[in-house]
Amino acid sequence: MNDDFKSGFVAIVGRPNVGKSTLVNALIKQKVVITSDKPQTTRHKVRCILNQPDAQIIFMDTPGLHKPHDLLGECLNKKVRSALNEVDAICFLVDAFKLIGKGDAFIAKELSRLDTPVILVLNKIDKVNQTDLSVQEEIGRDLGQFEKLISISALSGDNLGVLIDEIVKLLPRGPKYYPDNIITDQPEKVIIAELVREKVLELTKEEVPHSVVVRVESISRRTNKDIVDVEAYVFVERNSQKGIIIGKGGKMLKEVGQKARVDIESLLGSQVFLSLRVKVIKKWRTNKDIIRDMGY
């Protein structure tokens, strides 16, 4: 391997719903982490691998840093802070379309305590005119000391190449941590569970999203057939939420399954038979044992 080859870990941090997961998917050119317009979509610390001719970048998509309202929120913040102590560089993502404010300043203060180099990344420039973007960039510069400020659009791909080049500059020389054909360290069960949860977030109203968690019970390939059977449970906190997810005559749950199956088949490269069931676990977000069992 080239002695100048670089490798390292890069955390993507920012407020909820600034486009962290969309950015990671865009950088590795494949959907691995789920996206939604609902806050706190990302709950796991997901590693995604980008291979370049001269470098291997391991991106860590993290839950949005926020002021927690329950035990689950505290656990998610703990995951983010843990990630910040494990990386070689940080991409601090802010939303260029919304006025940079207190939530961004809160994260900037957290980052200022670290010795890790930080790139400030203004996302969603496809939604902003040049005058407003210039204002946002000036506000961004006042948030702290950064290696670079780069304005991008994860959705359209604008300036992603520039961002990658600047990240590589910050990485140490090192070996490949993962083979070229690996794009994430997440087990299939976790990715599939998240794909199902994404469809629940997409199709349900505000009452449901924060209370939903999905666990895949089994994945099995049929003998002599290119069909994979997947059995999963959708857990919620209240009976009323169970009713919403199932829907009249099971219509909502059927639609969740149909949409999730498309992404799962793309992930597995096989036809999928997806079986979904909904169960109620009251107040699971405040129960330490259940949060641990759910993988958080």
Account of the 3D structure:
This protein is globular. The longest helix has 18 residues. The protein has 2 domains: 165 residues, 3-Layer(aba) Sandwich (Rossmann fold); 106 residues, K homology (KH) domain (GMP Synthetase, Chain A, domain 3, 2-Layer Sandwich). Helices cover 35% and strands 23% of the residues. With 296 residues, the chain is α/β, with parallel strands linked by helices. The strands form 2 sheets. A 6-stranded mixed sheet has the order 2-3-1-4-5-6, with helices on both faces. The chain has a 3-stranded mixed sheet with strand order 7-8-9. Helix 6 runs antiparallel to helix 8.
Order of helices and strands: EHEEHEHEHEHHEEHHEH
Number of helices: 9
CATH topology category name of the largest domain = Rossmann fold
Question: How would a crystallographer describe the biggest sheet?
Answer: 6 strands, mixed
Mean pLDDT: 85
How would you describe the shape? globular
- How many beta-strand elements? 9
| Residue share in β-strands | 15-25%
Gap between N and C termini, in Å?
37 Å
Radius of gyration, CA atoms, in whole angstroms:
20 Å
Low-confidence runs: 38-43
Name the CATH superfamily classification of the largest domain.
P-loop containing nucleotide triphosphate hydrolases
The tally of domains stands at 2
- What structural class do the secondary elements suggest? alpha/beta
* CATH architecture label of the largest domain: 3-Layer(aba) Sandwich
